[in-house]
Specification:
Layout lengths: L1 H25 L13 H15 L3 H13 L32 H14 L6 H15 L19 H7 L7 H9 L5 H8 L6 E3 H9 L7 H9 L10 E3 L11 H7 L6 H4 L8 H9 L1 H16 L20
Antiparallel strand pairs: 1-2
Helix pairs in contact: 2-4, 2-5, 3-5, 8-14, 9-10, 11-13, 13-14
Bound molecules: protoporphyrin IX containing FE (HEM) and 2-acetamido-2-deoxy-beta-D-glucopyranose (2 copies).
Length: 321
């Protein structure tokens, strides 16, 4: 009896050890490239900073590109893959078509990194670092990026269509969608705060400014109608944050209190529901918003990474090797 119990205990210890070993294997780490490519982070940073210096909006576009990557089969840069005989790209699903951008910036950063350490650094890690560097450049929060993601060999337009939020989504739908990725309501509201920078196309806010949405400031709607006709002009741009579209601050939340959210999915965060209190808090307290945003970005970057021997290190981000 004693022997059996001891055998069981020993087996249990070994099982636990194995489990924690494989958990370690799957874990991302900020020092992943410390030995294999010590200059990776500085190389990416230089490349990203010069792209944003050329076009400031690129900061917004890169943060969004990382988000649209992570929500579709995890942060594996499936979004970067172009159409090919073996791949149907995610770039043309409704939430991405004529909308996500920054591909060439990631390609440039990748080729700069390939010059210093060929075949070592994944596109997925480059995109995660790019999003952090972009936030820093426009005065947003800073965080330490976990590393060790690998790149997918597949893309999934059907998962992209299913899992990326839409500007017509209601609050509960947004909460559920983020919950399904391990992000709670507070994370969702904090991350939506990245709409403090960047632009949206007329096609995404026309319904809100011409409809009988009582949840919109009348003067704001009139201003936005000037450059967004009732028909045509789908691609005309307006800033998501009317006050300070080029700097990362908490004005997005202050706008919502005044019913000046540009997208319907922005205003639903402050429309009498459960997230009102969070919006209120972030509008009053920029430092809480800043630290919550940083932690939520880390959480988002940790969604279902490919690690260990799963996936590949792509040589060119837009195609499978
Ligand atoms: C909560 C659900 C969300 C919805 C429904 C949504 C929807 C949108 C839409 C419709 C646009 C305008 C796209 C266009 O007209 O081309 C946009 C832009 C943007 N989104 Fe979101 N978004 C959401 C959450 C997020 C999150 C979580 C992030 C980042 C963490 C993010 C970052 C951005 C940025 C930075 C832009 C501006 C991009 C640019 O100027 O290129 N969004 N979003
Ligand atoms: C994407 O946008 C282009 C240009 O507006 C359009 O021609 C095409 O049909 C769209 N693709 C899909 C899959 O909707
Ligand atoms: C808005 O309301 C007016 C008056 O009630 C109505 O005539 C119009 O069709 C409505 N417009 C939309 C887009 O619902």
């Amino acid at each position: 009896m004693v022997a059996v119990a001891m055998y069981r205990a020993a087996a249990m210890v070994m099982l636990l050890a194995l489990m924690s070993f494989s958990a370690c294997q799957a874990q991302l780490s900020p020092t992943f490239y410390a030995e294999t490519c010590p200059d990776a982070l500085s190389t990416i940073r230089t490349s990203i900073r010069s792209a944003i210096a050329r076009e400031r909006r690129m900061a917004a576009s890169l943060i969004r590109l990382h988000f649209h990557d992570c929500f579709v089969q995890g942060c594996d840069t499936s979004i970067l893959l172009e159409d090919s005989p073996s791949i149907t790209s995610e770039r043309f699903v409704p939430q991405n078509n004529n909308s996500v951008r920054g591909f060439e910036v990631i390609d440039q950063a990748k080729s700069a990194v390939e010059n210093v350490c060929p075949g070592v650094v994944s596109c997925a890690d480059i995109l995660a670092v790019a999003a952090r560097d972009a936030s820093e450049y426009v005065g947003g929060p800073l965080w330490t990026v976990n590393l060790g993601r690998r790149d997918s060999t597949t893309a999934s337009p059907s998962l992209a269509t299913r899992d990326l939020p839409r500007f017509t989504d209601g609050l509960q739908r947004l909460i559920d969608l983020f919950e399904s990725k391990g992000l709670n309501e507070r994370d969702m509201v904090a991350l939506s705060g990245s709409h403090t920078i960047g632009q949206a196309r007329c096609a995404t806010f026309r319904g809100r400014i011409y409809g009988n949405d009582s949840d919109i400031d009348a003067g704001f709607a009139a201003t936005r109608r000037r450059n967004c006709p009732a028909t045509n002009g789908d691609g005309n741009l307006a800033p998501l944050d009317l006050v300070t579209p080029n700097s990362f601050d908490n004005n997005y939340f202050r706008n919502l209190l005044q019913r000046k959210g540009l997208l319907q999915s922005d205003q639903v965060l402050f429309s009498g529901g459960s997230s009102d209190s969070i919006v209120n808090e972030y509008s009053r307290n920029p430092s809480t918003f800043s630290s919550d945003f940083a932690s939520a970005m880390v959480k988002m970057g940790d969604i279902e990474p490919l690690t260990g021997s799963a996936g590949i290190i792509r040589r060119i981000c837009s195609r499978v090797n």
